[in-house]
């Protein structure tokens, strides 16, 4: 029981680190800064899910680190995006434990398409949808900190989309 409690506490602590990183990332109006900070946050999320033994979510979170780097370097590259989608599906197939893995898989697929093919508000809409899936995945894994982190990420992302929309309207009126 002590091992489980220690693992649970470590998972919660790591999820709080990810929380701080993600809020800073999604509060940024600059896509480049968003991507860089998300790399570090996803390392923390992968560790958190591993501590909760949610292997599909851990594997997809780790893969997201590579996805972010590739999406920044090869935006709108359909071949690389398709390869990342296949890698996401392969990780899910290799580590699948049941229906509780569906939200993590959906999050990985939505985020991959959004990061490769979209920018600005449209990208953030898919990332918000992925965040909603991650909320469910965190709840199913038993991660209190991760659930709060993804809920705040979702809210921060929506607020940033509204700020971007307001900025576009203000600059369009001038």
End-to-end CA span: 63 Å
Counting copies of identical and different chains, the oligomeric state is single chain
Q: Number of DSSP strands?
A: 0
What is the average per-residue confidence, as pLDDT, rounded to a whole number? 91
Write up this protein.
By secondary structure, this protein is mostly helical. 87% of the residues lie in helices and 0% in strands. It has helices at residues 2-27, 31-51, 55-73, 78-95, 102-117, 120-141, 144-173. The model has no long low-confidence stretch (mean pLDDT 91).
Question: TL;DR?
Answer:
About 85% of the residues lie in helices and about 0% in strands. The protein has helices spanning about 1-25, 30-50, 55-75, 80-95, 100-115, 120-140, 145-174.
Task: List key phrases describing it.
mainly alpha, 174 residues, globular, 87% helix, 7 helices
What topology emerges from the helices and strands here?
Layout: H1 2-27, H2 31-51, H3 55-73, H4 78-95, H5 102-117, H6 120-141, H7 144-173
Helix pairs in contact: 1-2, 1-7, 2-3, 3-4, 3-5, 4-5, 5-6, 6-7
């Amino acid at each position: 029981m002590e091992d489980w409690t220690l693992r649970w506490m470590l998972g919660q602590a790591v999820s709080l680190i990810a929380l701080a990183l993600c809020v800073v990332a999604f509060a940024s109006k600059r896509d480049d800064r968003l991507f860089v900070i998300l790399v570090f946050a996803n390392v923390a999320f992968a560790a958190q899910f591993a501590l909760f033994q949610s292997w599909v979510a851990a594997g997809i979170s780790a893969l997201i680190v590579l996805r972010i780097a590739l999406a920044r370097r090869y935006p709108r590259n359909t071949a690389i995006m398709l390869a990342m989608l296949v890698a996401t599906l392969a990780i899910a197939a290799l580590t699948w434990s049941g229906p509780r893995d569906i939200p993590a898989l959906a999050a990985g697929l939505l985020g991959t398409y959004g990061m490769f093919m979209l920018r600005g508000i449209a990208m953030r809409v898919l990332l918000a949808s992925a965040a909603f899936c991650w909320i469910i995945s965190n709840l199913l894994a038993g991660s209190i900190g991760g659930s709060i982190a993804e809920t705040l990420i979702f809210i921060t992302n929506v607020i940033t989309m509204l700020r971007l929309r307001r900025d576009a309207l203000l600059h369009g009126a001038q």
